[in-house]
Amino acid sequence: MAVSPSVRINVSGARGARGATGADNIEISQVLGVPAGSLNLGTFNGDIIPDNSSAKQALQALEDVAVRKRNEFVSIVDFGAVEGGVVDCTSALEAALTASKRIYIPAGKFRFNSPITHIFSPSATGPSDDKSSYDQIEIYGAGADASILYFPSSDGLEFQCSSFQHIVRLRDFSLTTGQAGGGTTALKITNSFAYFGEYNGHHHIDITIRGDDGYAAAYYWSTYIDLFNASNISFGKSCNLYGPVLGATDNTYGLGVRIASDPNPGTGSSGEPGWGTSYDLTGIKLRFLGCAIEIGAGVQGFSLGPGTELTVGYDGIRVIEDVTEVRQINLTGAQISVNGDSIYLASGVPSCVISGGYIGVAPGKNGIVFASNDGAANGGGTIVAGITFVALGPGAGDGVYVGTSFNPIVIDNCCFNGLGTGIELAATSSQVTVGSSNRYANCTNSVIDLGTGNIVAPANLTGNGVGFGESVTQETSKSTGVTLHSPAGRVITHDATLSSGARASFLLTNSKIGHKDVVSVSSSNGNYRVWTAGASDGERAIYIENIDGSSHSDAVTINFVVEKAAQL
């Protein structure tokens, strides 16, 4: 029969590559290092290979590959592991890790009654070009739904590193648990030495972690992935973490990824701080988790990219309270749709960029919360841009809430739809700029600014949009001061008598007013003239005069609008 140049040849018994009794498919053109389609295998029947073809050369190369694979990979079944989910395979995987750096998990369900802990041998912790400190473990399977490591009631895999060049690579298998929580951790990677510098390699995680009863069922790990002092980590686009169906109801049902670092200085020849650095979660899927991602102290260079999904669970991303040296968070094009707060920064994060993507805002919750600036170094700023914020139901909270800040924050080019408030700037906020390109639709309030030194673009402060036209009623007399924090609104005066030609004045306290702003007023009643005076931040005096020939006792509606053009 004629053989196509792209033919694949089964290499039976490539031990480790597919197990002792399996086979591995290898592309001939890849083995020989030549372009696909350039091989002439000739025409032959059965086992007869003609001398005028390149098949003999191909088979010799394949034999070499098979030998190399046998030397590099070992299968856990070669060390006594039995698939089926009944026999304890703990000692088999431990023996495989002792024998080889590269482990293959064939198709099947393998049971582990005890956690698996691999401790890398202590080695030099010098500069990144010190090859003597290099060591790597790779475990891969036949696919997430094919190769399953089942831990009925214990922790899963733990890797204890002692050098920045100790590397863990995991792909194409699943870690499952047979219980609901119980304090278990599926995967833990720690390092006694967190080097802040260049790296020769990186950890890679591309596996599925879930309950053994299925996806989003009842069983779940308390913590799915725990990273401490483990720098330079990437997550594959096939990495999926599934919590229980109850993960959508409360933040106690499973923590997806926890990242933290020891703030102590590095050791060896490095005197730099030992912060954990460089985490790329682009494409990862985290679903039905009580909290998808928790960021602790000393985490720098954290990224979420396009294709990342944090959905159906409760809390999205949380920077915990009272931590320092969290820097350079970059969230680009991610989809976050959870039932709690989508992004909650309980500590300060300088140099933070949140751009593109979609954020769903749940009832009574917020999209992005800058709750505190505690622990943030003075330097860098924050940009929130190009995000669509959409209410997930009635009673949604703020799109963006800023509590305290001293590093600048810029919010622009975002769309806010159906929210309680698009952007809320608390009284303790400062140095926040709200740009003119934001758009607000069906929001109760577009922008609420109670802070000091914030700049809110004119397009969001004037006009007849949603959130304008609020009112306050004067008490006691026409000289009683009123307070209304709104860019536009109405003051309804007291109905005290004002005789012909007489005037009264009162103070309007309004945090939206800057000392350079123009406050325009008009009266709904033609018997009165109104105007403003003063040039102080947060207040204006409003005058009302009876210009009719008779006394009147009217509750006059005075309309006002704050015009910010003079400030820019």
Rg over C-alpha atoms, rounded to the nearest angstrom: 32 Å
CATH topology of the domain at 470-567: Jelly Rolls
Shape: elongated
- How many helices? The count is 3
Unreliable stretches: 1-48, 124-131, 267-271, 459-468
CATH first level of the domain at 470-567 = Mainly Beta
> How would a crystallographer describe the biggest sheet?
24 strands, parallel
What is the averaged pLDDT score?
Answer: 83
Total beta strand runs: 46
The secondary-structure class comes to: mainly beta
Portion of residues in helices? under 10%
**Could you give the distance between the termini?**
80 Å
Structure notes:
There is one protein chain. Among the domains are: 8-72, no CATH class; 470-567, Jelly Rolls, CATH 2.60.120. The longest helix is centred in the first third of the chain and has 18 residues, at 55-72. It is built from three helices and 46 strands. By secondary structure, the protein is mainly β. The strands form five sheets. The protein has a 24-stranded parallel beta sheet that branches. A twelve-stranded parallel beta sheet has the order 6-9-11-13-16-19-22-25-28-31-34-37, with helices on one face. It is elongated, with a radius of gyration of 32 Å.
